[in-house]
Amino acid sequence: MPQDFYSKLEKLLKKDSRFIDQEGDLLKSNVIDAAYKADKKLVELLFSQREFKSKFFSKIKDVLVFNINDFVNYIQDKNFLADSYTKYRNKIGLNIDGKFLNERKEVTLVWPFKDCILEGGMTKEDEKREEIFFNETLAQDEIDKLLAPKVLTNWKRYTQKGEEKVKELKRDKDGVTRENLIIKGNNLLALHSLKQQFQGEIKLIYIDPPYNIGGDFQYNDSFNHSTWLTFIKNRLEIARDLLAEDGAIFVQIDHHEVSYLNALMDEVFGPENKVQIISLKVSAASGFKAVNPGPIDVTEFIFFYTKNKNNFIFQKNYIATGYHENYNLYLEKVGKVENWKLIPLKEKVIKENGYKSEKEIKQKYGDVADIIIKKMISDFAFTHADKVVSIRDLHKPSEKTRRLKEESRRIRDKIIPLKKADGSYTYLINGGVIAFYSNKIKNLDGKPRVVELLTNFWNHISWAGIAREGGVKLRNGKKPEKLIKQIIEIAGIKQDDVILDFFLGSGTTCAVAHKLGIQYIGVEQLDYSDNDSIVRLKNVINGDQSGISKVVKWKSGGDFVYCELMKYNELFVEETQKAKNIKELLKIWEEMKEKSFLNYNVDIKKFDETIDEFKKLSFARQKHILFEILNKNQLYVNFSEINDSEFKVNKEDKELNKEFYG
User: Fold this and answer.
1) Which pTM was predicted?
2) Residue 584 contacts residue 623 (beta carbons within 8 Å)
3) Read out DSSP for 105-149?
């Protein structure tokens, strides 16, 4: 086929924006997908020019039929669209018979920078995004190798004395590790490394993953929905395995992915194990948000699922609230019950405060009189809670109670006592039951407070002023310590339970667990420097007094163990990501030839022979090539290869890893 035919077809296809990436290159896989779907726009495009009409359409009984297979075979031909990037990939062996892996209809796993495992053929529409994919063809045994336990290195124990060597790991009588752990590295692989020791042991998981809105943390936070969901799904599936049968998971998200996440969590944990979606008020309608169109966005959401709802022990939780105005009566207990009487609470309070009437207070205080009266009533009700009451409807009364209810309705304003089975009394009047304000007062955070039951709308936790909590900062991602404390209380966590957070960020979850004396595991793959979770936990050990410290009477103490997934090819991934010019990439390539594990089909000799062609590629394409030729199964060192001299695992790490994995 003459070259001008190739170029004309390429030019024609580029008229459809669906078929070009951000750099203006043709996305062959998108064209192929459209062809298999007999896409109307593609057909019209080809039909518009005579030479393509005659080449790719056949006439059958006066009807022109699109020859899909002929067209696809042509697009897949290695001579079509053989730009410099494609030619180079073919030369160094990244294609098989000149065809991309996904065009060969083989099982393809896709591993993006942010570490998803996507099953099935992927089109290249994703190249329009900044997210770049590593494409690998992996057999099931290779997938298992990818997710196999990894070697842990750089062990440290942090105490009030500072940084110490880890000599041994504490275990309980059942052999389960009883250490507070912080693991640095890819969180998907870290979770699989935890599986052997902690499967079925984690009582509570809280995560605050990337919200998929762009710019959050240092993650690529702008995945396609499908990619983001796979990224989360891979992690939720192993998280489910780690959860205890009576455990629970809480996942916080904003509105962008809430509907998608709902469906995904139903799939992973089962709709029967869904407890609630909790709505959080996380900000006020002020500042720049107030100029946005539509209602101001001030909420986020927490998905609350259990591993097995039948095994989960639900806890009643309360929050502090103000005076309940429906408790507006005062019960004067004079002599026998039949002599008791109810009077308006306001009337009682005004007299108790030395005033003859409400009018007198208003004359004295003017515009603020109502505020003063409300404060008087609130204070009096709290200190006289056993005599401040309201009248409520009876809930599911027994036959005996129903008869007394009717009697109290006939005999107005007479209090009728009803002795219950436990020896206590219920008091009926005018067809209703007397409810005592004292039942609304409970001990909360060490103090008696007026409370109400916690609902699925949380506006009682302040997000203002949390920037300094723990002595670290995290822009747009930090959560209040009180939020994590509330979740721990809902889940009924005890000190012998284990909490996990594998999007640890600045370390709020682990900081709260540490102050409460609960074992924790935190995983984080990003380095936040001075605002890292390690810095925060060291502050906690040394007596940090922010967040929940005063409420829980935190002083100082405790320890935690830090370790990292041992990197191998991941070192070259990181160096390549950081590279700023071709000179740095070529230096990395020289190191890769000597020290890295490359894909089996990469021709190193051919790479070096064609280095001038490599230099002519765009910088982004050059990086992509280096990413592609690395073996992704060797990003980190597998525990099974700990004794391989190639990886140079030191004696101390060998001993600690063998102890950790049992």
Assistant:
1) 0.79
2) no
3) T---EEEETT---EES---GGGGGSS--EEEE---HHHHHHHTS-
